[in-house]
């Protein structure tokens, strides 16, 4: 069956949130004419809402009676599929999407005393809790028919092994190998499947478990590559280094066009260098970084060409957040998770790279305690990533 993006305004076939395209069937005639939505169950499941919510929403918006019998969801009157799809978009916008990060993985939470309830959307992605429009008629219906508690809870109970909580809440690993050279390692695929392997982190960081290094010839190639990289990149602390120049220029030109920035990188002769990303992450953005990053995704996609580039970008953002005079309020506002969500959804960061970053405190870019704080502030996103994974495993 045809699927569409839950956000139909997102024209990206790799957008990860899909739902079946809403189907309609007109039945009966005269006063008894009605529109059946045969796949309402499936659509609602994709939205993590009971199927009665969007059905009732259609009814309120169209001023029509609705009914449900034997899993058939019906709106009285003859309604065109396009019209109902538009109304579904409106429902998604009002009752599903997080207004803060536009992610659809939210839950409706009802709090407060009977008669004075408060309804909020609780976002699994960025952690934001945002109020629903209490004036909408659907609110009363939701209060009387609250979402079934914790279907997700049973899923969580079923899964074994390392849970999101264990990963995120557990002690973070201080990566002893992180003295500046591990991240300059070869561009080989990650040594594991993203499951943090405590105890063997140093091996993993050094890529020892990667078969490529067991082949002596290959190992030689890799080490030559490494030493070459060390030579090009050793000069980055120098104030005259092209990276420092780029950083200073970005500070002064935060509103530069993407093409100007690329031009500057070319002028400095550092096209393709991963350390460009450290400067971009650190100096191009301000305290409003969470809203600025979505406007720079095209630039970041162009610049971020390998895993190493991704790590450098994360390092740059770490510096930005940790050295901001408003560090504490930034870190407690969900900013880190919002940045990561944007970068992840726009295919700038790979899942494995973010996971490894999230579980490995490093003093490469900022002091160890700051590095730890920044990672802690990304908890909502990292947890969401684990849960999203578990759900696809279940299917
Ligand atoms: Zn959100």
UniProtKB/TrEMBL annotation:
PANTHER family on file: EUKARYOTIC TRANSLATION INITIATION FACTOR, EUKARYOTIC TRANSLATION INITIATION FACTOR 5
Keyword GTP-binding recorded: yes
Pfam families documented for this protein: eIF-5_eIF-2B (PF01873), W2 (PF02020)
W2 domain: residues covered: 236-395
Protein name: Putative translation initiation factor eIF5
Alphabetized Gene3D superfamilies for the sequence: 1.25.40.180, 2.20.25.350, 3.30.30.170
GO molecular function, one term: translation initiation factor activity
Keywords in alphabetical order: GTP-binding, Initiation factor, Nucleotide-binding, Protein biosynthesis
Start and end residues of each stretch annotated as Disordered: 148-220
Species of the source: Kockovaella imperatae
């Amino acid at each position: 069956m045809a699927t569409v993006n839950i956000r139909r305004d997102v024209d990206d076939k790799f957008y990860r949130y899909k739902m079946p395209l809403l189907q309609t069937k007109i039945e009966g005639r005269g006063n008894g004419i009605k529109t059946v939505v045969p796949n309402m169950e499936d659509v609602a499941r994709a939205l993590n809402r009971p199927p009665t919510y969007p059905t009732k929403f259609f009814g309120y918006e169209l001023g029509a009676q609705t009914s449900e019998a034997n899993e058939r969801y019906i709106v009285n009157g003859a309604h065109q599929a396009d019209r109902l799809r538009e109304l579904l978009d409106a429902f998604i916008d009002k009752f599903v999407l997080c207004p803060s990060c536009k992610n659809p993985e939210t839950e409706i939470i009802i709090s407060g005393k009977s008669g004075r309830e408060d309804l909020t959307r609780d976002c699994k992605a960025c952690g934001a809790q945002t109020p629903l429009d209490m004036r909408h008629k659907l609110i009363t219906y939701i209060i009387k028919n609250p979402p079934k508690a914790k279907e997700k809870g049973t899923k969580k109970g079923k899964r074994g092994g390392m849970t999101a909580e264990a990963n995120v809440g557990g002690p973070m690993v201080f990566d002893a190998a992180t003295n500046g050279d591990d991240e300059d390692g070869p561009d080989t695929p990650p040594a594991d499947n993203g499951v943090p392997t405590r105890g063997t982190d140093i091996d993993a960081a050094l890529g020892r478990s990667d078969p490529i290094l067991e082949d002596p010839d290959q190992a030689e190639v890799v080490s030559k590559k490494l030493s070459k990289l060390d030579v090009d990149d050793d000069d980055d602390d120098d104030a005259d280094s092209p990276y420092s120049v780029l950083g200073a220029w970005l500070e002064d030109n935060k509103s530069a066009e993407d093409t100007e920035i690329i031009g500057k990188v070319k002028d400095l002769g550092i096209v393709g260098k991963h350390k460009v990303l450290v400067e971009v992450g650190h100096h191009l953005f301000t305290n409003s970084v969470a809203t600025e990053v979505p406007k720079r995704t095209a630039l970041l996609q162009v610049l971020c060409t390998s895993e190493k580039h991704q790590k450098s970008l994360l390092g740059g953002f770490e510096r930005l957040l940790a050295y901001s005079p408003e560090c504490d309020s930034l870190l407690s506002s969900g900013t880190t998770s919002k940045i990561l969500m944007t970068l992840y959804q726009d295919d700038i960061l790979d899942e494995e790279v973010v996971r490894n970053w999230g579980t490995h405190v490093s003093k490469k870019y900022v002091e160890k305690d700051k590095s730890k704080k920044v990672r802690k502030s990304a908890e909502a996103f990292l947890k969401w990533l684990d849960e999203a994974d578990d759900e696809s495993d279940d299917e």
